[in-house]
Amino acid sequence: MGTYDDMLAGKPHKGNARELDELKQKAAAAKARLDAIPDDDLPARMEAAADLFAEGSGPFVLISPFTIQFGRHVRIGEMSFVNRGATFLDGNTITIGNRVAVGPNVQFITDTHPLRPEDRFPPPEPEDDPPFRVINIALPIVVEDEAWIGAGAIILPGVTVGNAAVVGAGAVVTKDVAPRTVVAGNPARVLRSVDD
């Protein structure tokens, strides 16, 4: 397996590998084309988004500016709304369901690193380019249909936010959120059901 395959399999991989840089540069060019289109021109933005986001995305509303690594790993469902300032660190898949509301400055972070520094920064191999290694581990994120992610929330690697769940503003979500529950805080904790 190559670095890209290891990344999508959730295995430790060289996060700064050249093979990944080429894919990131392609995404940056597609993002620049999307950013050049006014936010209120939904048909043109959806056409441009098809070059950046995963197949099966949309139609959705995504307000610029936003940050994205690869794009091809992010699927945003129908009638979802993503406010300005979103960050998609998509070293693995980020799946956002249908009719999801995402507040401003929300971060979806699939990448993490080994805890031990010697595992994070192992000695370089002779063929390394650049001549050092940063080890990443990327785990998928899923936000199910009709969830609402409040402003400034951070969704961390491997998390699933359940159907119709609500994540409060500024929450740091480290564990799965059950369907139809409200969570908030750092780390996010269950406050109540959406039906209470």
From TrEMBL:
Entry EC no(s): 2.3.1.-
Keyword annotations from UniProtKB, A to Z: Acyltransferase, Repeat, Transferase
Pfam hit, one: Hexapep
Name assigned to this protein: Putative acetyltransferase
Protein origin, superkingdom: Bacteria
Sequence similarity: Belongs to the transferase hexapeptide repeat family.
Xref: SUPFAM superfamilies: Trimeric LpxA-like enzymes
Catalytic class of the enzyme: transferase
One cellular component (GO) term of this entry: cytosol
Record organism: Flavimaricola marinus
GO function term, MF aspect, one: O-acyltransferase activity
